[in-house]
Amino acid sequence: MKVMIVEDEMLLAMELESEVEAAGHSVVGVAASSGQAADIVRDAPPEFAFVDINLQDGPTGINVGRMLAEKRIPYVFVSGNIKKLPDDFAGAIGAIEKPYTINGMANALAYISALVQGDDSMPPPASLVLAQDAPRPVRN
Amino acid sequence: MQEYDQRRTDARDAGQRLVARHVREDPFAAAFKATRMPMIVTDPTQADNPIIFCNAAFEKLTGYSSVEVVGRNCRFLQGGDTNPETVARIRSAIDAGSDIAVDILNYRKNGQSFWNALFLSPVRDDNDKIVYFFASQLDFTNVKSREAELAAARHQAEEAVAEATRNLRAALATRTLLVHEVDHRVKNNLLTMASIVKMQARLTKDEGQRSALMSVLNRIEAISTVQRKLFTTDDVARFDIADFARELATDLVGAIKRDDIHLTLDLTPVYVPAVKASPLSLIVNELVGDAVRRGLSDGGGEIHILVKRLNGHFLIRVEDTSEPVEPDETSAELGRMLLEASARQVEARIERTQAGRRTIVDVTLLVESEKDVPY
């Protein structure tokens, strides 16, 4: 599967790229800002994307997510604060909360890859919070 | 002028008639005259309901002499700041011939105002006809000004509270922002540390080095998971060790993709204070990691994890059935040290029993009961 990584921490992006490739996928591009993400989607459309919420141009990851949802490109958020996500998860499959573990990411990737290929028989891993299961914060 | 004089004379006459009806020794008349309560009597049968009698206390209160007030309607006590609505209420009570008790701002002869608690009541004859109005006055200016002072003080206090609340809210918002920022930094830094170790593990050609790096990564990731789970909950102060065990074990067993390792879980939420989260998680990490390593090397096995409360204690049991193997000496020593230090940190007791292919490790620890209550 062709994967886009939207992440402004280059070291994290680089390592995630290695993990994605180790799992047998290819990375079509790494974007550090919402503008770069739009460029990659235009020039080398991915089949799937990892999207951080906070990017170089601010908390624009959610906008990137909405753009992907409009183009029907499946994606998950990868963020240290998934509570910041809107209730509808901006159309994402789910979210992987940082700091993820090597096993957590590998399991999530296996699940997502099956899902993108139309196989929804796998149980979702603990590391992936699915949009429909996201805990709604209770405000008092 | 002549008419006014006539009215005054009539009023005075009426007053004198009233007094004349009482003999000098009449205790009621004497009491009326001598009481400290200011009182007047008016005659509604005469035009404009004039005062026909006032006592000494009234003279003292208002500064007017009896001669000055008799024959006049008592509206001369009103002034610029007297509430017209109050006057209208008195007016309609008189018209209706009913009692009324009101607070009204009146003025003394010298122009000074005072708060008057007025009580006005009709006096009826045998035929139920109103023959007099009786009015008593009470100067409560001091009470009124104390009320005003109290109201001002309360207002001031409320302002101060509102100001303090605003400051607290602002401080809280700043604090929350700071906590989120620090939390975000810590999470990113932990992941960055893990990424550096992963990169080096990927680069190295030496299997021993790689295995050592992965061993370090494993512990960094255990601590990372604690940090993630600690701040995922709304209640930062608590940490569910069962939830941690579930994620750790399912992720680990899921990632090794071995059909011959079977994991079963029996988990009840057990909340521990945040300070105990890291050492307890390291204990769980060591025990589960050990069990999986045994299962990996011997070609399969069963792993069962139990977390439950037990009479004020709580128990973590990791049980595995596999062929016992002699582990790598260094990694076994590291695991032993981590277990020992973590157990000492949280005052946990670790018991290991081994019988044939089965290894059972029990970790028991006292937990504060109020921390156990799940919401």
From TrEMBL, chain A:
<dbReference type="InterPro" id="IPR011006">
    <property type="entry name" value="CheY-like_superfamily"/>
</dbReference>
<dbReference type="Pfam" id="PF00072">
    <property type="entry name" value="Response_reg"/>
</dbReference>
<keyword id="KW-0597">Phosphoprotein</keyword>
<feature type="modified residue" description="4-aspartylphosphate">
    <location>
        <position position="52"/>
    </location>
</feature>
<dbReference type="InterPro" id="IPR001789">
    <property type="entry name" value="Sig_transdc_resp-reg_receiver"/>
</dbReference>
<feature type="domain" description="Response regulatory">
    <location>
        <begin position="2"/>
        <end position="113"/>
    </location>
</feature>
<dbReference type="GO" id="GO:0000160">
    <property type="term" value="P:phosphorelay signal transduction system"/>
</dbReference>
<protein>
    <submittedName>
        <fullName>Response regulator</fullName>
    </submittedName>
</protein>
UniProtKB/TrEMBL annotation, chain B:
<keyword id="KW-0157">Chromophore</keyword>
<dbReference type="InterPro" id="IPR035965">
    <property type="entry name" value="PAS-like_dom_sf"/>
</dbReference>
<dbReference type="InterPro" id="IPR001610">
    <property type="entry name" value="PAC"/>
</dbReference>
<dbReference type="Pfam" id="PF13426">
    <property type="entry name" value="PAS_9"/>
</dbReference>
<feature type="coiled-coil region">
    <location>
        <begin position="143"/>
        <end position="174"/>
    </location>
</feature>
<protein>
    <submittedName>
        <fullName>PAS domain-containing protein</fullName>
    </submittedName>
</protein>
<dbReference type="InterPro" id="IPR036890">
    <property type="entry name" value="HATPase_C_sf"/>
</dbReference>
<keyword id="KW-0288">FMN</keyword>
<keyword id="KW-0285">Flavoprotein</keyword>
<feature type="domain" description="PAC">
    <location>
        <begin position="98"/>
        <end position="152"/>
    </location>
</feature>
<dbReference type="InterPro" id="IPR011495">
    <property type="entry name" value="Sig_transdc_His_kin_sub2_dim/P"/>
</dbReference>
<keyword id="KW-0175">Coiled coil</keyword>
<dbReference type="InterPro" id="IPR000014">
    <property type="entry name" value="PAS"/>
</dbReference>
<dbReference type="Pfam" id="PF07568">
    <property type="entry name" value="HisKA_2"/>
</dbReference>
<dbReference type="InterPro" id="IPR000700">
    <property type="entry name" value="PAS-assoc_C"/>
</dbReference>
<feature type="domain" description="PAS">
    <location>
        <begin position="24"/>
        <end position="73"/>
    </location>
</feature>
